[in-house]
Amino acid sequence: MVDWTRRMARRARDGGDPLGGILALANAEGVLNFSGGFPDPSLFPTGELGDITRRLLDDDPGVALQYAPSNGIESARHAMIDWLSDEQGHRAADDELMITSGGIDAVTLIARTMLDPGDVVLVEEPTYLGAVSGFAAHDPVLRGVELDEDGLDVGALGELLAAAPVPPKLLYTIPDHQNPSGRSLSEVRRSELVELCRRHGVLIVEDVAYRHLGFDGTASPSLWSIGPDVVVQIGTFSKVFFPGVRLGWASGPAEIVAKLAVAKQNSDQCAGALGQRMLEEYLRGGLLDAHLPKARALYRDRAAAVDAALRAHFAELGEWTAPAGGFFTWVRLPGVDTTELAAEAAEHAVAYVPGAGFFAERPDAEHLRLSFSRIEVPEIEQGIAALGAAVRGLGSGARR
């Protein structure tokens, strides 16, 4: 028998599977599931999508059922440009936006386009584990920049950049309702961050996956609207439309977007045309704007339930963030290895994501991420209570 593992590339042999376990729980039953950032299926616009799909199949099969250009169907791109312009106050030129197959596709396209082995990539510490693995596949040096209550520590970033012998290639940041911490970058820091990276020639990759899910419906200026010359904004419709369609965008300097489109020709070639046309019709009809308040209200109620349950069951065990939007609460349990705790939690039929995988440079096992997006309010209290029991039930070997 051939040992195929020995024939694999080093990145495949040595790499883990940070998202596989989370995605495996997408449709799990019998589990109080705080793991993945899955939107609630009750929000999927099935009625409107049925009408749109039937219309496209009748009137536009030659486009909707065909291959699409690598940068996206022109009319769908223009619909996205219009929507982003209305929402962020900055309008991309026609050659400054492309359609991607979700947010992670944009990450991998940027990594493939911008990075040579050994290049330095800055990420928030902690940050989205899918981005960490997406960048790591291209053999960069990953450096972490700490977060505080106001988001990315721009002062610490400035010190890092001043001491760097060669400017880092790029900085990846999630400024709105960050994954996993739930924190947002303050408005003052946004301008400071753009100016700092402009001065040092560092490309900002701004991930706005949760920007449109602020519980009060407001949002600070995007980094892209402040500094379109130094920012590539990437986004996804998986959280606010539906994830099965796998659609997102990348918008930034035209010379970068053009190369991202070339890179896409060597990956999946194009995002699905039917999904693009469905989304275009949904945006043009004002249906997404009408849908977002309902989504915000549902997730706001669930975040409040998580906070109340943590106050009831974790007050003496640790600390946690109180997000103003998005899907996640970030919990710190001093002295507890949350990777080991996961097995004990599973015995109580509770699933969450241990924190260590969210750190690119300095792993921290005392944190865990709770996603409240797909678990209903009555189950939240039950799940947090069970998780508290799991923490208390840990043997001395699980504590450092």
Task: State the main characteristics.
single chain, 400 residues, alpha/beta, Aspartate Aminotransferase, domain 1, Aspartate Aminotransferase, domain 2, eight-stranded mixed sheet, four-stranded antiparallel sheet, 43% helix, 14% strand, globular, pyridoxal phosphate, PyrdxlP-dep_Trfase_small, Aminotransferase_I/II_large
Coarse morphology: globular
Radius of gyration over C-alpha positions, nearest whole angstrom: 21 Å
Ends: how far apart? 43 Å
The CATH architecture of the largest domain would be 3-Layer(aba) Sandwich
CATH class of the largest domain: Alpha Beta
Q: List low-pLDDT spans.
A: 22-26, 396-400
CATH superfamily of the largest domain: Type I PLP-dependent aspartate aminotransferase-like (Major domain)
Largest sheet entry = 8 strands, mixed
Spell out the helices and strands N to C.
Answer: HHHEHHHEHEHEEHEHEHEEHHHEEHEEEH
Strands of the widest sheet, in order across it, are: 2-9-8-7-6-3-4-5
Number of domains: 2
**What's the CATH topology label of the largest domain?**
Aspartate Aminotransferase, domain 2
Helix content, binned percent: 40-55%
Strand proportion, as a percent range, falls in: 5-15%
GO molecular function, one term: transaminase activity
Keywords: Aminotransferase, Pyridoxal phosphate, Transferase
Protein name: PLP-dependent aminotransferase family protein
Cofactor: pyridoxal 5'-phosphate
